[in-house]
Design brief:
7-stranded mixed β-sheet; single chain; Ribosomal Protein S5, domain 2; 316 residues; Alpha-Beta Plaits; globular; binds (R)-mevalonate
Amino acid sequence: MLNASGESFAKIILIGEHAVVYGQPAIALPVKTIRLTATITPRTDGQQLITSTFYRGSLQAAATSAFAGIAHLLRALLTFFGARQQGFDLKITSALPPERGMGSSAATATAVVRAMYQAFATPLAHATLLRWTAISEKLLHGNPSGLDAATTSATRPQWFVRNQAPHAIAFPTNGSLVIADTGIPGQTKAAVAAVASRLQQAPATNQPRLAAIGQAVRQAALALAADDLVKLGAQLNTAQTQLAALGVSTPALDRLIQAARTAGALGAKLTGSGLGGCMIALATDHTAAETIAQALTQAGATAVWQYDFVQSEEQQ
Ligand code: MEV
């Protein structure tokens, strides 16, 4: 084993969450200014130690912690490399807020897989990386579409359809997103399960909601290609209406979404699984986004980030 490190980014779903689990397309973007790094240092005493914000201790004891998904992934990787007894220190440093719909678990898995492949001097194809990250995501979320891992491992905005290779999608260079945190942890597993149960109980009402989100995603792609931010904003609002009808918005998310619209956002919606976590608002430019960010802070957002679309073009 060699000294090694792997990196990944926060992800923001622009549009398409939940419907993407059922085969509809989604558009998501890596936020390269919010990073996560996994560093592996070999140990000669055989101890396998992990240091992260969620968990600090041995790999063995991690099996019953909030780190269980990543621990399971790590054991699978060690088995793959024929190194179950190899001692190491794994350190994860992250600027991503956990459980806020920014892909913290997928970003951790991405960086860990990258670091492990580097530690065993093995080239890593992107499709292989996505197969590995699905292991921990499945354990954590039950039925992940793969969108989070595809985005946390990308450097450009992604057009994603489940079980298909993701590909980059171009963004206009004007336009800006405000991302705001309700301060309440999102609940991916519960939110995905809640939508599944609604679909089972009332398919005739809820299938069209997923189809409407898919349609809004396709319209959003056309709006992005045409630099039409007003149309893009309208699609974000449509998706939010459907997500609220599916039961994954909350009063805290609704309050921030309303505050952003009142402050001039072209559109606003929750991002990620909902039931807490973050929302996004679309602004015409950086200055308009600053005004919206201030309004969101006044409305109770615990953290606010700005993402100018021009960043999507920048190399990391
Ligand atoms: C969670 O970030 C996104 C969801 O669509 C679930 C998934 O795609 O696996 C809610």
